[in-house]
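Why does residue order matter? Because the sequence determines the fold. Keep that principle in mind as you read this record.
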Amino acid sequence: MEARAVAVNSGDGCSRSGGHPLEGRPMLRLSLITLCTMICNLTLAMVLFVPLFAEAGVGGSLCDGGEKVCDKQYLFVSQAWNSAMVMGGVIQFFAGWFFDRVGGRVTAVTAASLVALGLLMLQIPLLGAQGGSDVHTHSWLFVALLFANTGAEMGGKAGMATVWHLPAHQTFASALVMCAPYVTGFLPMLISAFMHSTALPLSSIMQAWVVLVILAGVCYYRLTPTMAEYRLQAEKALGTTLPPPKSMCRVLREGHAVLRAYWRLNALTVLIIAGASSFGLTYASLLGDWGKIFLGSKAAGVELGWMQNMF
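Structure:
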């Protein structure tokens, strides 16, 4: 037991007996980690970010006839968001394996770093649109969103590092972690209102957001349990030692065996989930067009986006 205590001490920079400032307050610790996750999350706010980026001029070089915001531009921004979300979702599998190998703290700090890098890269298409160079810079939108959404998906795992600190409230802890991306849907609503009241460009808002993400990364480092602390708390709660994490090759090999054993059921499940998700993504990314078709204007589609985010 002394050896395990030393391991936690070397990983945390604090001892088992109360070195961490929030050692005896795991619920507050989880709540602060969830707040960091909200700051670092972009994914489910896509519905309203699409018109914000289109109105900022990203993809404007695709328009004909000097239109401010055209259908080609709107579709380009929507496709960039959709593609980045799909790729970020695929990376969730590797994020889970990464968490098992290195623990919550390293995963969370890596996630915040990727989000910050993605937001910095968003300056390329945003500033390019402002400077009249959109034809050369708009293709960077997908790359920037891919980094940011990958980090957002990884950051969603950070709160799971505290589940063994709350053995009597694991369902509530898991629900709190999972609700963070949904609450983030209010973020573009606040950004849009702030932009209208201050006349600041979207690029300036994104620069300020980078600062918030960096601060969230510092909080992640201070608050998220390390692998040693996570395993020690699990041992206390379960009364047994957790098995060592599996290698990626073994995980893929075992997963492939399960897929082959039930391939018909798995194929049907994948088709159903993919179909349902594609319909949802298409609806969310083309709300402006739905508003124009059914309600007479794209502004009505944006209002649909507000309603979807709220409900």
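The radius of gyration is 22 Å.
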